[in-house]
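haha ok so turns out i had the wrong file open the whole time. this is the CORRECT one, sorry everyone. sequence first:
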Amino acid sequence: MVSETRRLNDLVENLMEVTRFDAGTARLVLDDVDIADQITACIDARAWLDAVELDAERGIHARLDPRRLDVILANLIGNALKHGGSPVRVSVRAEDDSLVIEVRDHGPGIPEDVLPHVFDRFYKASASRPRSEGSGLGLSIALENAHIHGGEITAANSADSGAVFTLRLPRGTSASAEQPDEGEQTPEPDADRCEAEDSKGDA
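then structure:
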């Protein structure tokens, strides 16, 4: 009962977040962020330090919404840990005025027929297993959070093995998008790759 209650609470919070995006009421609360520190805090808060390799130099800064960046990172890294294979590696680099964060795992990769749908809401890679621990909205919300920054997330399979999710964000998001998100609650990350429980290997 406790587990189901928690799952339903997460679903409600995620649906509220989706509603804000659809209504155009989601806003950024921008701050100057040290990206290495932000990723470390995200990993540490979820006890993932021993499971994730971080390749990020300190001193790479960007003007972003820290809460929304945490939601993106938690979803991408959580999905890699749950559905990919070890090691999970997070790398950061600066390209001109852009910030690039890659989350790479060494699992079986994402089936080619699933790749076009990984960010679809409620997409299920396996119709035989419709239930999952998450809401099925994690990657969709991560993508919306990237878009509100003026960025993008792409998914692909590595030439070696595993999947690679690439987050690209401008290092100086326009201040015109900056307004307080009054009354918003932070949605719990959804640990479902491809918005589904079985995006890797079980499709």
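The CA atoms of residues 88 and 105 lie 4 Å apart.
again sry for the mixup
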